[in-house]
Amino acid sequence: MSVTSALEQTVIDQDQREQTRQCLTFILAGEEYAVDILRVQEIRGWGPVTFLPNTPDYLKGVLNLRGAIIPVVDLRIRFGLAPKEYGATTVVVVLRVLSGDRERIMGVVADAVAETYNIVESAILPPPAVHGAISSDFFEGLVTIDEKMIVILNVDELLNSGELAVDGAAAGG
Which of 44, 69, 129, 159 has the fewest CB atoms within 10 Å, measured from its CB? Predict the structure, then answer.
């Protein structure tokens, strides 16, 4: 094989290499949900938050994170799942969320952290087009790992929708 052929083969191999992304998964009501690990700022054990009156029931309150006030959303309630008493495994996953041209920090309450996975992009299936309380826009897709289905969340859509929207809040008040 000539040097040129070897170089061309290397380029082809690099192009054909599967694109992967690393995701953190957490548990809600026995199901596993994933978020892009690059969006995770930190994982904290559950602690008290400051309640804000006249907010949606899924907005548990705000948390002071090293001087930054961040809203904390209970995903069980947001997804219409049965509430659960917070316990030793309950965590707040602190996420970086893109809101238009800026970034904001928000926390989501989960029953427990599960795993981190390297997910091959081509293995991600599109979410089904269903109409319900939760928009399919909140999901990037589904992937099967070790014979279990994992829902990959679109944190930007999920945490910028409805009452959580920065622009919607500004326009409404």
Answer: 129
Number of domains in the chain: 1
Domain that holds residue 26: 19-172
The one-letter amino acid code at 117 reads Y
Can you give the CATH number for the domain in which 101 is found?
2.40.50.180
User: How far is 146 from 132, CA to CA, in rounded Å?
Assistant: 28
3-state class of 95 per DSSP?
A: strand
Q: What is the CA radius of gyration of the chain?
A: 19
- CA 147 – CA 11 distance, rounded (Å): 34
Question: The tokens of 157 are what?
Answer: 């859509």
- Amino acid identity, residue 159? L
- Tens-digit pLDDT profile for residues 106-154: 999 999 999 999 999 999 999 877 655 556 778 899 999 999 999 999 9
Whether 62 and 70 have beta carbons less than 8 Å apart is answered as: yes
Distance (Å, rounded) from C-alpha 20 to C-alpha 117? 10
CB atoms closer than 10 angstroms to residue 59: 19
